[in-house]
Sequence to fold (145 residues):
Amino acid sequence: MSNEIEVDNEFTVYFDAKLENEGFARSMVSAFCLQLNPTVSEISDIKTAVSEAVTNSIIHGYANKKGKIMINVKIKANVIYITIADNGVGIADISQARQPFFTTKAKEERSGMGFTLMESFMDALDVRDNPDGGLIVSMKKIIRA
Ligand SMILES: Nc1ncnc2c1ncn2[C@@H]1O[C@H](COP(=O)(O)OP(=O)(O)OP(=O)(O)O)[C@@H](O)[C@H]1O
Ligand SMILES: [Mg+2]
Fold:
C-alpha cells in the first residue's frame, strides 16, 4: 500500500507475539502518530485497528506459540500507513476471513469482527499472504485538518 511513496517519517519494530505486548504495540503506534495532531477519535481508531491486527497475529497466526510480529509505520503529509506482518499460519481464504462475523474461533468467544473494525475505523485495509509465510495487514489513515 505504501511501498512506492517517499515518506516523511517512518519506524519499524519487531517484537515477540505475546498478548502482553499488544498494549505496547498500540501505544507505540499511536505515540508516533501524534506528530500529525490527530483528534482523540482518530487516535482511538488507530489504536483499535492496531490492537485487532496484533491480537490476530498472536492468537490466530501463531496460535499463542512463539513468533515475531513486525510493525512498520510511515507518515507522508497527513496520511499514516501502518503495516503489521507475521510469519504464522496465514489465511487460506482471505476474502472469506474478512466477512463480518466470520471466525475460526467461535468456541473461544471470538466474534469475527476484527477485520470489519479495521476496515471501518481506517480509510483503507489490505490483507495479503506474506511471501515469507503468514499474513500482511496494511492500513491507511488520513488525518483530516
Ligand atoms: N494474522 C492471522 N493469521 C492467521 N489467521 C488470521 C489472522 N488474522 C485473522 N485470521 C483469521 O481470520 C478470521 C477473522 O479474523 P477477525 O479478526 O475478523 O475475527 P476473529 O479474530 O475471529 O474475532 P474477533 O477479532 O472479533 O475477536 C479469524 O478467525 C482467523 O481465522
Ligand atoms: Mg480478530
